[in-house]
Amino acid sequence: MNLDAAHPLALVVDDELVTRMLAKHALEGVGCAVLEAVDGIAAQEVLRQHPHVAVVLTDIVMPRMDGLELLRWGRDAVPDAMWIVLSGLDTFDSAVAATRLGAFDFVAKSSRTEELEVAVRNALERRRLIAERKQLHGELERKVRELEETSGVLRRDLERAEVIQRALLPRSPPPMEGYCIQAVYRPGQHVGGDLYDVVRLSERHLAFYLADATGHGVTSAMLSVLFKQRLVLADPATGRALPPAEVLDAVNRSLCQAHAAPGLFLTVVLGLLDTSDATLTLASAGHPPVLHARRPGDAPRSPHGSRARAGPGCAVPAGAYPGRGGRPDPPLYRRAPAVRDAAGAGTGGAGAVQPALQRDGSDGAARP
C-alpha cells in the first residue's frame, strides 16, 4: 500500500483486547485499514509483511518485547511509519523516552476516542507532508541535474562560438606605409556584440570600423555578424571607396529590412583613411566619439569638439522617432580631420574593443 492510498494502513500493538478494539475503532473513524498484534514480536512480523504501514499505535508494557524496544527497531525497519505510543503509565519519563526514539505523539490509554483520532489525523498529515517534501526534493535534484547537463552543453557551444566569432576578427591589420594600427579585443563573455575590422580598399584608402551591439551574449553576437555581412565598403562595380556616412546609411536600411526586433540595434563608428592627403573621414551611428591625441603625452579628445554629435544607432527603424516625422534627427555625421598623430575608438560594458590608428614618426620614431 503506497503513501497516497485512500485508506492508510495502521497497526495496533497491545496485549489487551479491549485497548486494541478501542484503538481500532478510533483508527477506522479516520479512514484507516487496521492490522493488530498482541506484542512487539508479533508486530515485527506484521511490519515485515506490510512495510508500508502508515501509523503504528503501540503500548509500552507488553510481554516478550515492549513498545520502546519495538519503536527502536522500527525506526530503521519502517522509517516512513508514524508512531503513537499508548500507555497506562502516564508518566513524563515514558513520554520523553518515546519521543527520543522518534515517536510522533504520546497518548494515555485513559484518553477519549476523540483525542486519539486527533493524534492519528495529525500523524497522517505529518506523514503526508514528509512524503511530499521528499518528492519535491527529489524533483528538485532531478531538475538541478538536468540544468547542470544543459549548462554544460551550452557552455561548450558558447566556447565553440567564441572560436568562430574570433575568426571574424582580423588576424593582423593590413600594412599601410606610414601608419600603425593596433587593437585590443576582450569579450566579457564567451561571445558578445563587439566587432571590429580593418580593410585595405585601395593603394590610398583604408577603412576601419567598430560596432557594438546592444546587450551581451549570443543575440548580440548574431546581430554583429549580420552587420558585418550587410556592410558594403566599396562600390561593387567600380571598386571606389564609399563615403562612411553613405555606408552606414545603407547598412542601416538593410538591417531594418532584415529584422524588426524591438530593442536590438548597434552603435557603429566607421573611418575611411585617405593616405594621399592624410585625412580621416568618420561617420558615427550612436557611437561614443573617436578620441584624438595630437602629440605624445596629450590627453586624448574628440577631434570634433565637445559639441560633436552622432547619428542614431544602426538597425533602428524609422518609426522609432515619434514627433520627428518618423525620421531620426540628427542624421549620421561626416567629418574629415587631419591625421597627424593618433586616433582611437572603443566600446564599454562587460567586454571591450579598443582599436587605434597612429601615424608613424609622430615623435620621430615608428610605433610598434
The Rg value, from CA coordinates, equals 40 Å
Which geometry do the CA atoms define? rod-shaped
The total domain count is 2
Helix content: 25-40%
Biggest β-sheet strands, sense, barrel: 5 strands, parallel
CATH class of the largest domain: Alpha Beta
Mean pLDDT across all residues, rounded? 76
Classify the beta-strand content into a percent band.
Answer: 15-25%
Low-confidence stretches: 321-343, 348-353, 360-368
Distance between the termini: 81 Å
The SSE order reads EHEHEHEHEHEEEEHHEEEEEEE
CATH structural fold name of the largest domain: Phosphatase 2c, domain 1
CATH architecture of the largest domain: 4-Layer Sandwich
Strand segment tally: 16
How would you briefly describe this protein structure?
By secondary structure, this protein is of the alpha/beta class. It has helices at residues 17-29, 40-49, 67-77, 92-100, 113-167, 218-230, 244-258, and strands at 9-13, 33-37, 55-59, 82-87, 105-108, 179-182, 185-186, 194-200, 205-213, 266-274, 279-285, 291-293, 333-335, 342-344, 352-353, 356-359.
Would you kindly provide a written description of the structure presented here, covering whatever features stand out?
The protein is an alpha/beta fold. The chain folds into two domains: 9-137, Rossmann fold (3-Layer(aba) Sandwich); 169-359, Phosphatase 2c, domain 1, CATH 3.60.40.10. It is built from seven helices and 16 strands. It has helices at residues 17-29, 40-49, 67-77, 92-100, 113-167, 218-230, 244-258, and strands spanning 9-13, 33-37, 55-59, 82-87, 105-108, 179-182, 185-186, 194-200, 205-213, 266-274, 279-285, 291-293, 333-335, 342-344, 352-353, 356-359. It has a five-stranded parallel sheet with strand order 2-1-3-4-5, with helices on both faces. A hairpin with a 4-residue loop joins strand 10 and strand 11 (279-285). Helix 1 crosses helix 5 (113-167). It is rod-shaped and about 115 Å long.
